[in-house]
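pls ignore typos typing on phone
manganese (II) ion + seq
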Amino acid sequence: MTNNKTVLDWLKEMTDMCKPSSVIWIDGSEAQLEELRAEAVSTGEMIKLNEEKLPGCYYHRTAENDVARVEDRTFICTPTEEEAGPINNWMAPDKMYAKLRALYDGSMVGRTMYVIPYSMGPVGSPFSKIGIELTDSIYVVLNMAIMTRIGKAVIDELGDNPDFVKCLHAKKDVNPDERYIVQFPQDSTIWSINSAYGGNVLLGKKCFALRIASYLGKNEGWMAEHMLILGLENPQGEVKYISAAFPSACGKTNLAMLIPPEYLREKGYKVWTVGDDIAWLRIGPDGRLYAINPEAGFFGVAPGTSEKTNFNALESTKKNTIFTNVAINNDDMTVWWEGLDKNPPKNATEWTGKQVDGTTYEGNLAHPNSRFTAPAINCPCISKEFENPDGVPISAIVFGGRRAKTAPLVYQARDWEHGVFVGATMASETTAAATGAVGVVRRDPMAMKPFVGYNMADYFGHWLEMGKKMDADKAPKIFHVNWFRKSDDGKFLWPGFGDNMRVLLWILDRCEGKADAVESPIGLLPTVDDIDTTGLDISKEELQELLSVDKKVWLEDVENQKEYFAQFGDRLPAEIKKQLEILEANLSK
Ligand code: SAT
Ligand code: MN
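k done
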């Protein structure tokens, strides 16, 4: 498929090591993909679902020990430990290469290696970057075909260029003790072994589009962020774009595909989805910040997705979708998960493969981190700008997390520097998207804790640098939201989902200088009258509680922030220290 010497030399080195019985180039044609689907069904790797109800849809089950990203086995192998920083696992590149070579050696004997050329971003866009993933898993090929642009057009676009991200994945025997997800940023190389689950093996996603890309972005003056991108259209037909960072499984897909409350729909408001997980951002010729979604599909959390919570996501999964670790309704070969509806199938296959009566079953039929891989073009509200090679201009950047108590519903940073600090002090209660305890508060700056490909302190510095390159009136305004605030008796205070639009409207009005705000120790807050509660069953007192800042709780958080920042030592930008001092002083007044 190519005469690119760098590609061919690398491929030879990898095949000499992994020793596959055959090598197949993925050209991206539907005929080839269809053959692979048939093969995966014949070997049991995938199960064909009901062709009438779910045309083109397949089911895949991973090993029980292999159901989420494994952060403790994810490494950033920079030449020095300093470069990877204190929150990444690190090993010297030589040592890691040697260790992994031994594991990869002969790992594909008797198996086929697939060569997948793929583009993150529309092929040929100035934002886009090319990768090639070698894998022995058809599941990976078929997922990559949904999540990225693949095949001949991409390898043609690469031409003789030696500049591409070299990705190697071997399923091996899925041994969790020898599972490694390793990034070598200086070599633009990703090696993954002993997993067959989503984010560990679809190497274009977190490994490339965030870890490697954040490193490239720092060197090349752009940003790779864990952000959704949405367009909000007002009744005059003007669309403004917002990008928002939340940790995994905190509702990015839901926010990206939000359906406005009825009274706003009637007025003519609409939301358009550009991306649900990753944004690549560059400063455009006009000095504004532009974003593309480098992906071509959604790898969304299935549980909790319903007609009511996310109609558009559910619609997106109705055709040409791969479901991973959800439950099967054996009667009609459709899928089910907790929160889809109140009618679990009686005759069900649990995600582990166990046959159960779903109506009497206790526990989860679908794994809490079960997923759908759906083409973005299936989404009823996909933005017209989705394929725009120049991206969309960003008016507001929103940070958020799950905080039962601390963070108010919404507040605005005073300026870019303060906004970077707000992002840097993000924290959230953990979810099932990564292995480990669920519900524990952890600091997750810009939702990038598991995804930053270099020292987090330098990453804060890069954010500050990007701000210096934009005039204050052109740079996006920065906000923080928390949909998950709870009352003392443990109930969510805010309805969330479509009603989050009410908060987005305040945010955009602030960007245009049309809405009021009041100063608070942590930033600019709306008053209870600034958030439109038309048709909502929420009292002024409850809204007041949602917008309140408890200084005592915040001062405790400041202590935790200090401890967190201490690990970066002298590398922490002075500006972050300054912002921390301002916050503490404001709270102590
Ligand atoms: O499994 S993934 O890392 O791709 C999804 C996520 O955690 O957001
Ligand atoms: Mn994510």
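The chain has a mean pLDDT of 97. The pocket of manganese (II) ion (ligand 2) is lined by residues 226, 248, 277 (CB under 6 Å). more later
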